[in-house]
């Protein structure tokens, strides 16, 4: 399973990269705004900075919701770097845009997916990734992980190459369960990735080893 980090924070991206487990990055306009990245030129420059850190797929989201402008924005993003994946919303014009980008050899990530039917449309259009939102479904008392499992099964039934990118992954159990049910990718904040390191028995065991070593060499 691939690990993507869901952020526009360069320090967090570097830290995840330095850990040696990072495969890519996902961003969106909200994450850019959170880091104070505003204005077209600054946003494009920031995407280039991310690409200089991570040698993997970097999802860069279009802002437009109409077909013609999505195409324009997506082509501009794709020209920034070979690793850019154009992130497109799951709407009618978005599906049309995914088909266009696919035919042009431009990688895509279909975002804001909340049903198996939406995921099926994205795969039919040729999306490189489809991003079902686990946590946001959980927020409305719907089983987000069940949707991931359903999409994985459907894609497997028909051999769709579209990768299931589990988004809105908020904690370790989300991540581990996505791995259990066969998600191709998870994207999450840095703290979720680093939380995988933690276990109280690891801490207590290490403390014991170090104490015993100190006794033996005193």
From TrEMBL:
The keyword Cytoplasm applies. Its main location: cytoplasm. Its EC number is 2.2.1.2. InterPro entries: Aldolase_TIM (IPR013785), TAL/FSA (IPR001585), Transaldolase_3B (IPR022999), Transaldolase_3B/F6P_aldolase (IPR004731), Transaldolase_AS (IPR018225), TSA/FSA_arc/bac (IPR033919). PROSITE patterns: TRANSALDOLASE_1. Pathway: Carbohydrate degradation; pentose phosphate pathway; D-glyceraldehyde 3-phosphate and beta-D-fructose 6-phosphate from D-ribose 5-phosphate and D-xylulose 5-phosphate (non-oxidative stage): step 2/3. The keyword Transferase applies. It is found in: Cytoplasm. The active site is at residue 87. Keywords: Cytoplasm, Pentose shunt, Schiff base, Transferase. It catalyses: D-sedoheptulose 7-phosphate + D-glyceraldehyde 3-phosphate = D-erythrose 4-phosphate + beta-D-fructose 6-phosphate. Pfam families: TAL_FSA. HAMAP family: Transaldolase_3b (MF_00494). Belongs to the transaldolase family. Type 3B subfamily. Transaldolase is important for the balance of metabolites in the pentose-phosphate pathway. This is Probable transaldolase. It comes from Rufibacter roseus. The gene is fsa.
